[in-house]
Design a protein that fits this description.
Shape: globular
Helix content: 10-25%
Strand order of the largest sheet: 8-10-11-1-12-9
Low-confidence stretches: 136-145
Distance between the termini: 9 Å
Oligomer: single chain
Number of helices: 4
Strand content: 25-35%
Length: 199
């Protein structure tokens, strides 16, 4: 079995950040370039903003942060979990997180880039999809859009991976059973999930 994982919409876990405008623009333009999509190659270090500046009032930071520059930042704990399962397979770039008080966060965070974007990992013949989530049509990547879907993964394409993405659904994270279990065991905050089959 596998899981769709996505950051929660619960305000308690939605700390907001921004980065300097020059980095926001350069990162946005780089990621908008189709030549850089689905390449399973690390991004150049220079496009990652060196700092994330907190603009929300959260006193406790979650383990998954939206940086305001189209990069997701993850905690040291998540990095350690994923690296224990898939060492050296993803890109983690350290970032300095500045809290609302102006202090550097005691938690270490990393910009995260998945380097396992798979083609054809969803079995569309066996999946049951709602009208607005059929590939090739306009659809939302929000988890709520898939609550009525029955997505089925191809086990031979996943081939034992623990974290991957699908080219047709490029904003969704997919977790293995082991990764999801360890993230939940260590109580990282905060993801929500849909359980999906592998065949």
């Amino acid at each position: 079995m596998a899981w769709i994982a996505q950051t929660t919409a619960i305000p308690l876990y939605m700390a907001a950040f921004e980065v300097e405008e020059e980095y926001k623009q350069s990162a946005f333009l780089y990621r908008r370039n189709p030549d850089h999509w689905f390449k399973n190659k690390p991004y150049p270090i220079e496009i990652f903003p060196p700092k994330m500046l907190q603009i929300s009032r959260h006193k406790v930071l979650p383990d998954f942060l939206e940086s305001g520059a189209l990069h997701v930042a993850v905690s040291q704990t998540f990095k350690d979990i994923l690296e224990s399962l898939e060492p050296g397979l993803h890109q983690f770039q350290p970032v300095e997180v500045i809290t609302r008080s102006g202090a550097v966060s005691e938690m270490q965070f990393y910009y995260f880039r998945n380097l396992q974007c798979l083609d054809g990992c969803v079995d569309y013949e066996q999946s049951i999809l709602s009208e607005d989530s059929i590939p090739g049509r306009r659809f939302s990547s929000r988890l709520a859009s898939f609550m009525d879907d029955e997505l089925v993964m191809k086990k031979d394409v996943i081939n034992g991976r623990h974290f991957w993405m699908d080219k047709q659904r490029s904003s969704l994270w997919f977790f293995s059973e082991d990764l999801q279990a360890e993230v939940e065991r260590q109580k990282l905050k905060k993801l929500r999930y849909i359980h999906i089959r592998e065949v």
